[in-house]
Write a structure and sequence with these properties.
The protein is α+β, with helices and mostly antiparallel strands. Helices cover 16% and strands 50% of the residues. The protein contains 2 helices and 8 strands; from the N terminus they run E-H-E-E-E-E-H-E-E-E. Strands 2-3-4-1-5-8-7-6 form an 8-stranded mixed sheet, covered by helices on one side. A hairpin with a 5-residue loop joins strand 7 and strand 8. The longest helix has 10 residues.
């Protein structure tokens, strides 16, 4: 599959969304958009060509490092090619595929070493 356009975003779980937004704004990020996905608010911030997704998780401090979720998302051009590639590589789908309220299509898979990878078509 030679379908990746760019890294779309990196996602981080946070304990206090407002506090984290303020922190990243102090680093020069600006709010791009907010999305509600299955009752969970996701906030996208940008700085230059870098996009960061923040989402709040209760009791994050009580989670072990193995339970904390971070992922890297790659923007792709051809959705069907991605789905075929996932099947060919026998990757485990952990979530999705979904179509978000803004029209984005997304799917999450586990890489060979357990890393979470999202593929997104905007």
């Amino acid at each position: 599959m030679n379908n990746i356009k760019s890294i779309h975003h990196v996602a981080i779980e946070v304990s206090d969304l407002s506090r984290s937004i303020e922190f990243y704004e102090s680093l020069g990020f600006i709010i791009e958009q907010s999305l509600d996905f299955q009752g969970e608010e996701m906030m996208f911030l940008v700085s230059g060509h870098f996009r960061l997704e923040l989402y709040e998780v209760e009791d994050i401090c009580s989670k072990s490092n193995d339970d904390k979720q971070m992922h890297i998302a790659f923007e792709v051009e051809n959705w069907n090619e991605v789905l075929d590639w996932i099947t060919e590589k026998k990757l485990k789908i952990t979530e999705g595929p979904f179509k978000l309220e803004n029209g984005w299509r997304t799917i999450f898979v586990k890489g060979y070493d357990g890393e979470i990878i999202e593929f997104i078509q905007c």
